[in-house]
Amino acid sequence: MLNKLLEMSCKKATFLASKKEENKISFIEGIKLKFHYKICESCKRFDEQTKCIGKNAPHLHQHTNMVLRAEKKQQLKELIELQK
Amino acid sequence: MQIDFMILPDLWVDRYADMLYRYAFVRINDNGIAEDIVQETFLSAWRAKETFKGQTSEKNWLYAICKNKIIDYFRKKAGNISKPALAEEDNYFDEKEHWREEPAPKAWGANYQHKIETKEFFSVFELCKKKLKDTQQIVFVMKYMEDMEADKICEVLNITPSNYWVLIHRSKLHLRSCLEKNWLKI
Q1: pTM here?
Q2: B99 to chain A, minimum CA–CA distance in Å?
Q3: Cβ-proximal residues to B169 (8 Å cutoff; 6+ apart), any chain
Q4: Which terminus of chain A is more exposed, N or C, with fewer CB under 10 A?
């Protein structure tokens, strides 16, 4: 009975996961989501893994050695010089 | 000493060009546009240099200008792409909307959080982000990389909140799945 009441699909649960991050879900949806994570390992993983990706995304540029082309740098220096 | 108020435009390129370029490239995935953004950042900074009063470091000031240029670019770009179709073929879930066995999230193993801070992860992430549709990519960057709120993102991109939530949902499903397939197998 309770199970029926709290039932939620995985599609809905993964959808609500993002809304929850911004506190945009209702009280009932929150309870349903918690219950869903207790019975669904896949959705729990989805939430943990995507949160981890999101948390690291802002720092990704620190993990690359890319550099701006030397010609472009020279061009920018000349451009700045021209503004003077 | 007025060191806090000092900006040194002659050193901008040597000091900050690579840093800004990386920052922009990771968010935009296009060499040419990332170069343009760096250029516009320096030019805007030059024009606004009188307003710099040392409230922040020169570096953070340039970052802030660069961020604004990136958001402006997204605003323009979103105006040029047709509004996303809400319905998209669903390979992740079955007819009852539960995970299909193959695409269901698998365990990523112990310590995967640490493996994310590596060059290997970065290159796969870049590849996977590029595979997203334009608007999915843009909302992902604005939310997770620029830390903007949903309301603000909707306003900038001129999309409805329900549209936005669908785009975020999609981008996370695709990115996660692509990372699982390509990164964990390295």
Answers
A1: 0.90
A2: 6
A3: A14, A15, A18
A4: N
